[in-house]
Amino acid sequence: MPSLCLGWGVAQVSMAACRSFGALMAARFFLGLFEGGCLPLFGVITSQWYRRAEQPMRIAAWFGTNGLATMVAAAASYGLGHIRSHLLRPWQTIFLSVGLLTILSAPFVYWKLDNDVASARFLTDHEKAQAVERLRANQTGTGGRDFKWSHLAEVALEPKTYLWIGMALCLNALASVTNTFGPLILGGFVSDKSASTLLNVPFGVVQTVVIVLACYLAQRARLKGAILILLMLPVVAGLAILFSVHRDPSARATLLVGYYLLAFMYGGIPLIVTWIVGNTAGTTKKSVAMSVYNAATSAGNIIGPLLFDDKDAPAYRPGLRSCLIIVVTLVVVVAAQWANLVLLNRLQEKRRVRNGKPANVVDRSMESTYQAMGAPPDDVVASDAAAAAGRLGDQAFLDLTDVENDEFIYIY
């Protein structure tokens, strides 16, 4: 992670030094290269430190900074954009400032971020053992250093991988709407382009609130698929406003509301990340699954702008119509993944019975408060539960995949 932060910062600073299209493309390539590894690594690290019930809010804590960054970037861009220099253009000043801050963060990340629970410098040996034990019910392990080709094969052959890819493509293709309509709508309120960036501050506020609220509801209700589908309702409303309202000065406020409603789509990204890391066991498999997901998000970012053609300006109705179709497709894919995970749990129950284990196992990783994996449910006699649970949990730290471990329980 420190290496990614350092490389990311250097790439940003390099943007300020670009004087040709080729140099700019090279800097952008390395910017994407170092940025591309961050989301998968953030997700994997979170899954190695927290119980599955705790992961949504932890992911919201770091992903929600995207909304905060939108607010800070809007204000900073306005201020830095007014710096007059014969050497640097305003956009170069912005990249130079942000890049230097990113470089300065690398030593701090190296100092404070430990690899995993077992090597945490701020825990005693006894606390490390306790921290590892509380992760047993996750059945996803605590990390490993060996690359396993069998894990890679599972990712390539599983239907749920391609459903994750479908979600990433749809959600990030939709994000292009904000890039297309944001400048058009915000530019209509003020003549100064730098001042129009300040209107992105409320967008960042909505983004942050939605991310935190969506993850909180998913954690409380223990239903990620349902919350993800509900998040699409305001997005549909925003798209409908942009599609139906005429582009004239009297409709600017209405169009702005429609634009801000699109911020709800960003609440879906941390939910999908939580869904993936919570339903994927095995270090290699989880790392590959998150990498594939992030690659799909990049593909979605490429596809999105292609939906909008300059000849359709300023309404871009064909592009908006395509986005509405994408939302419907996303809902269908989420529902399909939900049904797929339910089916996988049914198959796991049958496997446990064949292996002489109880079909129904209490998923302690999703309890609101920590309980040891062998603790009996309230309606089960402790002595009977002890006999059934005595063999459960022994495979939790063997770096098995969710397919290899019959005790793994998929979450919805």
TrEMBL record:
<dbReference type="GO" id="GO:0022857">
    <property type="term" value="F:transmembrane transporter activity"/>
</dbReference>
<feature type="transmembrane region" description="Helical">
    <location>
        <begin position="319"/>
        <end position="344"/>
    </location>
</feature>
<keyword id="KW-1133">Transmembrane helix</keyword>
<feature type="transmembrane region" description="Helical">
    <location>
        <begin position="26"/>
        <end position="47"/>
    </location>
</feature>
<protein>
    <recommendedName>
        <fullName>Allantoate permease</fullName>
    </recommendedName>
</protein>
<feature type="transmembrane region" description="Helical">
    <location>
        <begin position="59"/>
        <end position="79"/>
    </location>
</feature>
<feature type="transmembrane region" description="Helical">
    <location>
        <begin position="225"/>
        <end position="245"/>
    </location>
</feature>
<feature type="transmembrane region" description="Helical">
    <location>
        <begin position="162"/>
        <end position="186"/>
    </location>
</feature>
<keyword id="KW-0472">Membrane</keyword>
<feature type="transmembrane region" description="Helical">
    <location>
        <begin position="288"/>
        <end position="307"/>
    </location>
</feature>
<dbReference type="InterPro" id="IPR011701">
    <property type="entry name" value="MFS"/>
</dbReference>
<feature type="transmembrane region" description="Helical">
    <location>
        <begin position="198"/>
        <end position="218"/>
    </location>
</feature>
<dbReference type="GO" id="GO:0016020">
    <property type="term" value="C:membrane"/>
</dbReference>
<dbReference type="Pfam" id="PF07690">
    <property type="entry name" value="MFS_1"/>
</dbReference>
<keyword id="KW-0812">Transmembrane</keyword>
<feature type="transmembrane region" description="Helical">
    <location>
        <begin position="257"/>
        <end position="276"/>
    </location>
</feature>
<dbReference type="InterPro" id="IPR036259">
    <property type="entry name" value="MFS_trans_sf"/>
</dbReference>
<feature type="transmembrane region" description="Helical">
    <location>
        <begin position="91"/>
        <end position="111"/>
    </location>
</feature>
<keyword id="KW-0813">Transport</keyword>
